[in-house]
Each structure stands twice: as structure tokens, then as C-alpha cells.
């Protein structure tokens, strides 16, 4: 997957990103749920003001970088920057399926090996944006890293089966942006946060 893939509107990129494989060091996951955020055209976006802050600066940088933010005083979430420099566009990664690194993910999420997880714990390993980010071991210090030059990262094309498009989750106070249908997920995947 070339950087040019991300140099477009996140609304175009998001459904095509489903099924892709993202590797962060020893963990590889298949992306199955995403949300698009359109910067100053989207009241739900952290970059809605159109002006970079210390926190949101990576969103206004080159496509293919990551933006990691801290929320609710306890969770980190992972985004991939899209579009052109200065636009503030991005895609939130909401859900995935683990391909490699099951034990490392289980340790990060529940403090024990994968084989010792209950069925409920297995089901809830990476089906949500904060869970996914924790599973990758990413924090705000990683915000701004480049998927294409940082040796820890690798991203590969993949393919999704049936894709569902719907409104985004958890943004009730974003004006008309609350109803934007910019969430995409793979219908049959168990890695989706909410169907």
C-alpha cells in the first residue's frame, strides 16, 4: 500500500482500508471497522477549528502519519492521517481481528496469555478503538509517527467482504455531523465494536 492511498478524502479511503493489515512491531491486525473525519468540514473532528494545536498537529501533517489521542482520562485511540497537508483529515480505527501477536495483545489487555482468556475476554480483545490502540501498545507519545518510515510499522492492502456504511458512534453533540454516515465495517467480522 503506497502513501498515495491515504492522500485522498477519508470518506473515500475508509471503506477501502477495511481488510488491510496493520503491523506495529510484533502485532499484526486486520482492520474491520473505521470512521472517517473530515477536519474543518466535520464538527465531530478534533481538527474542526482548522487550526493545529499541540495535540492535533499530526492531523494537519502528511498523509500516512498517525494521530493518537487520549480520551476520558483513561483511553488512547488511533487514527491515520489522510488528505493533503493542512486539511486535518483522518480515519479512526475502531475494530480489528488479530492475525499475529495474540499473547502480547492478551497481556496488554488482560495481563495474561491468550490461552488463559475467557471466551468473553477473547471476544472483547480489539473490538473498539481504545482496545485496539492498547493492543498495539500505542500512546500519545507515538502520535505523529510515519507508517512509511518508522520501522515499527507496516501496512498492507487487504480486502473486506460485505461492507456496511452507517453513522458514527459516540458523538451525540456534534450538530449535523452526528448524522454523517461515515462509519464503515465488515458485516461478518467479530472484531466490530457494535453492529
From TrEMBL:
<comment type="similarity">
    <text>Belongs to the DNA glycosylase MPG family.</text>
</comment>
<protein>
    <recommendedName>
        <fullName>Putative 3-methyladenine DNA glycosylase</fullName>
        <ecNumber>3.2.2.-</ecNumber>
    </recommendedName>
</protein>
<keyword id="KW-0378">Hydrolase</keyword>
<keyword id="KW-0234">DNA repair</keyword>
<dbReference type="GO" id="GO:0003677">
    <property type="term" value="F:DNA binding"/>
</dbReference>
<dbReference type="Pfam" id="PF02245">
    <property type="entry name" value="Pur_DNA_glyco"/>
</dbReference>
<keyword id="KW-0227">DNA damage</keyword>
<keyword id="KW-0326">Glycosidase</keyword>
<dbReference type="GO" id="GO:0003905">
    <property type="term" value="F:alkylbase DNA N-glycosylase activity"/>
</dbReference>
<dbReference type="InterPro" id="IPR003180">
    <property type="entry name" value="MPG"/>
</dbReference>
<dbReference type="InterPro" id="IPR036995">
    <property type="entry name" value="MPG_sf"/>
</dbReference>
<dbReference type="GO" id="GO:0006284">
    <property type="term" value="P:base-excision repair"/>
</dbReference>
<dbReference type="InterPro" id="IPR011034">
    <property type="entry name" value="Formyl_transferase-like_C_sf"/>
</dbReference>
